[in-house]
Amino acid sequence: MDPLSVTSSVLAVATAALQSAKALHDLVHGLVDAPRSVSQSRSLLSQTQTTLGALTRTLESNSAAGVVDSVLQDIGLSKALESTNSLCQEFTTAITRLTSHSTDSRFSTRDRFVVQFNESKINGLNKDLADCQRTITLVLSSITLIVSSHTSENVDQLRTQFDTQELALADLGAQLRTREAESQSDDHGSTTAEEDSSAQLAANLQKVCRRTQAATRAQRTVQKFGTMLTDNHSIAMQGIVGVAQPGVDQSFGNMTTTMSSRAFQGQMDSSSFGKLFSK
Question: Region Disordered: which residues (predicted)?
Fold first, then answer.
């Protein structure tokens, strides 16, 4: 698929998921004195809206950036976004049905009993949506980090940020594996349709995490420099001096040195640097 169509496609799915999350949030927020299983969804839905909103803005502002196109192709983020959209729509249908006798000023006693009877389903939807939200949040963090790494020259800071991001993705992957295992078994050795769906969702989100982790690792550190000109006995450098930094992807523009000037691009140990620029 053309990279630009990948970005446009992901943005379209993200926008649809954001609209579904907002509609569900507005529905839940309008329920006064709702049971805890319903009211607890408000915070999660606010976080989901925030994450999806930030993602759409990031994709829109970097739609022409080749690095974002490449990352989106590698990650397969649409799966998580489609799941989020479906969950919000399913959640909206369930809440609408379970609270049909309530108004914006009073929660029906009858509906309260119905909601309590269906509490396990609501809690399951909350857990599934939370898994999607956390996955999309970390994918967004990786995209933002990878984009910023192409303009930052602080190698040590970037390495720390990439290490932290990879650990966070690995930790979420482990949590999702636990969620999948829990959904696949119960005391009777059988599962419900909802549990099967949750297990499949956890498996799909694990795949997104693994792909995001691989894409993050592949882009660990990037330095990009423009053209460098030196003259009149001047000195200049672009790159890294000191201990060799493995895994650094460097790109440079043209370098021109004239009139006994000195310059270098790349990586150089301290001793060689001293010899090159000593008087």
Answer: 177-198
